Amino acid sequence: MKLMKHLAGVMIASTCLCAPALAQTELTMWYHGAGNEVESRIINQIISDFNASQSDWQVSLESFPQGSYNDSIVAAALAGNLPDIVDVDGPIMPNWAWAGYLQPLPIDESEFADFLPGTKGVWEGKLYSIGLWDAAVALYARQSTLDDLGLRTPTLDNPWSGEEFIAALDAAKASGKFEYALDLGMNDQGEWYPYAFSPFLQSFGGDIVDRSTYQTAEGALNGDAALAFGEWWQSLFTGGYAPGTSEDPADQETGFIDGRFAFQWNGNWRAVATMEAVDDVVFLPAPDFGAGNKIGAGSWQFGVSASSDHPEGAAEFIKFATQDKYLAAFSDAIGLIPSTPSAAEMTENYKDGGPLAVFYDLSEAQALVRPVTPGYVVQSKIFTKAMADIANGADVADTLDAAVDEIDADIQSNDGYGH
């Protein structure tokens, strides 16, 4: 009897010793930054920290080149094979939510009360995605150029008017010191066009689509304000102020630094490299063409796929990843705007008095997200083609009318996109 009890005890002890610990449940995540070593290093560090911080969830990452990422998501959605955690470009998010790829974030929105507006992906009144950074555009100039040309230095509170902006370009052109007065980055005929150039249209009083209903572009993209914008836009190229669509990418990369452009319309992601090469670079706010000065907003954000079996785990990771220390790490590494003021104070460039703090202020005060509609994925391409055509000499009114017809036909064929 004693022997049987002893054997039973050994068996119980052996069973306890051999039973494995409960495994962490895997969460799959897709990211758009394959090939970007800096981003990959930080994302992988966040994932490693999260996996080690708790015993419930294990995030595994698969990265894709940015150029093929969106197509990969669409294909995975059609195949019913989306990951738990999705990386989504802010203006694309409404389309993915409408198409059923994403679910509203299972996180109380108060968690993100201090985040910049452009970092929040909202559709139909619900938060679907949140970003670890935002991006902003400014007018790059040298203080010495402004002084030499006798130009007032515009500020956020007192920007240049449209007339002052053209006067500045005229002064730069007349000086004979520059190949072009202004560089717009016209070689990049992708999302740069609606992100960087539609704010000019909006400052004139127009828009890509009528945001009051999202059912038509009529009046917004071809009304009086839009026509005035289109004529101004075309004059930048016919008047020889800026290089057109055939601009060499290398010229756009180095033209301002080399002194061939007096001004450059560019994003904060180029600011650090420019500061290293240009001692007196200043970052100026967008000019006001009558309806306020505007810049674009909304960059890459994290969301939870609608098909995820573990939305609570995905939400835990997203909350973990949006800690200030990670927002600051991304900002210091890639130069983009941290999502919160507290994270900004942890950075070298965006803290109060930092060399790029102006971009945080610009984003907070001037940023306007691109049209919040599933139809934007089509509208952005139509707008891009129209801007390129007008820059290349097409009739302004005819081009804008044709763009309106295309946008309206797409909206109608998609039953209004759920608005």
From TrEMBL:
<keyword id="KW-0813">Transport</keyword>
<comment type="similarity">
    <text>Belongs to the bacterial solute-binding protein 1 family.</text>
</comment>
<feature type="signal peptide">
    <location>
        <begin position="1"/>
        <end position="23"/>
    </location>
</feature>
<dbReference type="InterPro" id="IPR006059">
    <property type="entry name" value="SBP"/>
</dbReference>
<keyword id="KW-0732">Signal</keyword>
<dbReference type="Pfam" id="PF13416">
    <property type="entry name" value="SBP_bac_8"/>
</dbReference>
<protein>
    <submittedName>
        <fullName>Sugar ABC transporter substrate-binding protein</fullName>
    </submittedName>
</protein>
<keyword id="KW-0574">Periplasm</keyword>
